[in-house]
Amino acid sequence: MNQDITNLTARLLAHRWLPRTDLQVRRVLVDEAFRLELETRLAAVGLQLLDNPFAEHVAVGLQDEVTDAVFGGRDYSASTMGLTRDEIALLIVIWTLIILPKRERQLGRRSVEDDGQNDMFGQEKPIEHGESVSGAVSEASLLADFGTQLGGRTKIRNFALGKLARLGFIERRNGYLFEGPLLDVLLDYRVLADRIINGTLADVLAAAGRALPASLTIEEIDEEIDLDNEVESRR
User: Fold this and answer.
1) Which of 147, 124, 160 is nearest to 204 (CA)?
2) At the top level of its lineage, which domain of life is listed (predicted)?
3) How far, CA to CA in Å, does 169 sit from each of 18, 46, 56, 88, 110?
């Protein structure tokens, strides 16, 4: 077991994220002792495993207790992966347009291509991941709707989107933005969803002619996490 843990820890640190379909990651999700050993090793160096059942990947991040020790006294961008305020605002907009509809599909056990019909046994299905439930955002539409507010179209197209892609938040393909490995892992749905749906960004999106899905309660999210964990443990 020790060598397996060593290999997995090294891979997580080297790659920053791994897919949930990875064999060693799958073991972490179903083997409590294996997961505890991994978390103990990460905690020894101030890190934690970031695992969201709705995300397609797992990742590693700093523990709250060491954040100030790592970033304290440095400039603003040091603690935000080098992102400026405009780039963070752009990231939140993209998260809103991709992850909120995705979560609605996951909880409703629907896909992007769903015809809207109800599935009698849908709630018994495991949570889906990937592009079957995660839609894409047109770069052209994003620039047209938010370019002026977020630093200008040229800056967004030539710099900001490229930075978000390099950091693993998005993937750019043929003029469309897709969910990257970290978009649904590093940005906490429980923290952001209510603030976004009921906050100032809702007004921004409404002015741009974009509609937001209905808010999901924390209780609903917790119930789905518990259900998905049960499914994972039986696999």
Assistant:
1) 147
2) Bacteria
3) 14, 23, 12, 11, 23
> pLDDT digits over 136-154, tens only?
999 999 999 998 888 889 9
Own/partner contacts of 84-92, CB < 8 Å, gap of 24 or more, are: 86/150, 86/151, 86/155, 86/160, 87/151, 87/160, 87/163, 87/164, 89/149, 89/150, 90/146, 90/150, 90/151, 90/156, 90/160, 90/161, 90/164, 91/164, 91/169, 91/187, 92/187, 92/192, 92/196, 92/201
**Where does the pLDDT of residue 171 fall: very low under 50, low under 70, confident under 90, or very high at 90 and above?**
very high
Q: What is the mean pLDDT of residues 6-18?
A: 95
Is pTM, for the whole model, over 0.85?
no
Burial of 72 (0-12, 13-18, 19+ CB in 10 A): exposed
pLDDT value of residue 9: 96
Separation CA 8–CA 61 (nearest Å): 15
* Amino acid (one-letter) located at 64: D
pLDDT > 80? residue 132: no
Q: Which residues pair with 137 in a beta bridge?
A: 177
**Distance (Å, rounded) from C-alpha 214 to C-alpha 216?**
7
